[in-house]
Design a protein that fits this description.
6-stranded mixed beta sheet, 6 strands, alpha/beta
């Protein structure tokens, strides 16, 4: 493996730390590069990310590249993986192939055809897909010139849904006069909140209870802002139901780790609900893996490093919640400041960092020198910095002494912030030290994606795990 390829693979892993927020072109370039230079690794990474990743945009770009690949194994894997997506994601994959790959192979069209026919053959599955993704389903049929079956045509294009279909039930809901009748329809047919809310004229506590009961924990999290705006938090009974769903969310395997944090930031919620959302995030992060190696987190607090301090708090909470080994946290300018928290939650680390303010010069080696003197032995060192070191002791020099005296060679992970340079990285590479860099672009919701990179013994172990992930095989040819 030459350096260019190795760096490219790690750059790909680094890119998974970004959350493009529906701007797929932001991640398209690195996908395009690696699928051409290392198609074997790319195929396994796509499958690994489908199982372990959170960012939907990346999942869509992976499948689009597999479906347009020159390798039969890739196209078959993409065919199988596409079937797992909801309609809106299938539509986005199709549009991405057309706009960014400039092609839509016959096998990709067949994959979408199979997707739609499987749903048509199961009325309950089709109705749910058509209710949640009506626009996307219509787009798939129309843009690929796929002829819908009679029932699908009646629901999607003629707006004459047959009796008993969910689309027809939704029309009943819009006409229902009483809250009791509305609640009955919502509960009996498990109508999705986002759809039902548009058909209901007056939202009573009875209807809210019915809606929340039929929601998944993830749906409750996604719609907290809307629920609050509609008065859900003002009724004790309704609030208790929401609390119960958030408790379920912390245990569920189907909740995205950073969605709870997004909800907490988007809605003006009470302290109790915020604490519950924080618990959901923490519990979901813990599901990602466990850090078994002693770890140091060094946070740059020199001049203009406010964003490094904020990121340091979040990383400390993330790491302390999943570590089964020693964790040493230091802030530093030209001297080290040990940081200890009374617990493992973000609020505990907020308190621990409350008197740490940005200012002063930069000696990244200062905290490592303190660790050397205290004989604090670690296997990995995470440094949050812009790499602008301008005072002794310099990290590169201290690192050599630390390794020699404590008989370890810690892996160094540089999390770059702000207008960074590559000073620290180049110093370490010059002495053949194991160093990785990750660029933080200000998106805290993507931090849980860092967990797999910190819980494996080394980057090579993670790359080997990815390569061991088998590609799904198409069985219907």
């Amino acid at each position: 493996m030459n350096n260019t390829e190795r760096d490219l693979r790690l750059e790909m892993l680094n890119s998974l730390l970004t959350t493009p927020h529906r701007k797929l072109e932001q991640v398209a370039e690195i996908h395009k590069l690696i699928v051409e230079l290392d198609p074997i690794f790319y195929g396994h990474l796509a499958v690994w990310y489908q199982r372990n990743g959170d960012v939907r945009d990346h999942k869509e770009v992976f499948v689009a590249h597999l479906l347009t690949s020159n390798l039969t194994e890739h196209r078959d894997a993409g065919f199988v993986m596409l079937q797992e997506f909801p309609p809106y994601q299938v539509a986005r994959v199709v549009d991405f192939m057309k706009q960014h790959r400039n092609k839509l192979p016959r096998s990709a069209r067949t994959a979408v055809q199979r997707y739609l026919k499987v749903r048509e053959s199961n009325p309950a599955l089709f109705d749910r897909a058509a209710l949640r993704g009506r626009k996307a389903m219509k787009h798939l049929y129309a843009s690929l010139h796929i002829k819908p079956g009679e029932r699908a045509n009646a629901i999607l294009f003629r707006d004459q849904p047959p009796v008993g279909s969910l689309a027809e039930v939704l029309k009943q809901l819009a006409k229902a006069d009483s809250a009791a009748e509305q609640a009955r329809l919502i509960v009996e047919f498990k109508l999705p909140y986002a759809i039902a809310i548009g058909a209901i004229k007056q939202l009573t506590p009875t209807v809210l209870v019915a809606l929340i009961n039929s929601m998944t924990p993830q749906e409750v999290i996604n719609n907290l802002k809307s629920l609050k705006a509609r008065g859900a938090m003002d009724h004790p009974e309704v609030k208790a139901l929401i609390d119960g769903k958030l408790e379920e969310a912390s245990k569920s395997t189907r909740v995205a780790a950073f969605k709870a944090q997004i909800a907490a930031d988007a809605a003006d919620l009470d302290d109790d609900t915020l604490a519950r959302l924080e618990k959901v995030t923490n519990e979901q992060v813990k599901r990602r893996g466990v850090i078994t190696r002693p770890t140091a987190l060094l946070v740059d607090k020199s001049g203009s490093m406010e964003n490094a301090i904020e990121l340091g708090k979040r990383l400390a909470a993330l790491i302390s919640g999943i570590t089964q080994a020693d964790l040493f946290v230091y802030a530093f300018d030209t001297i080290p400041y040990p940081v200890t928290a009374q617990g493992k939650e973000l609020t505990d680390w907020e308190r621990a960092f409350q008197h740490i303010k940005a200012g002063g010069g930069t000696s990244i080696g200062a905290p490592l020198e303190a660790m050397r003197k205290k004989y604090q032995v670690v296997d990995q060192i995470i440094v949050v910095t812009d790499e602008g070191e301008n005072a002794a002791p310099y990290f590169g020099e201290v690192y050599k002494t630390y390794c020699r005296e404590l008989a370890v060679i810690p892996n160094v992970v540089i999390v770059r912030v702000g207008g960074y340079c590559n000073w620290l990285e180049s110093q370490l590479k010059g002495q053949q030290a194991p160093v990785e860099t990750f660029t933080f672009a200000g998106d805290y919701y993507s931090l849980p994606n860092l967990v797999p990179l910190l819980t494996r013994p080394s980057r090579l172990d993670l790359l080997m795990e990815i390569l061991d992930m088998p590609l799904p095989v198409r069985t219907d040819k």
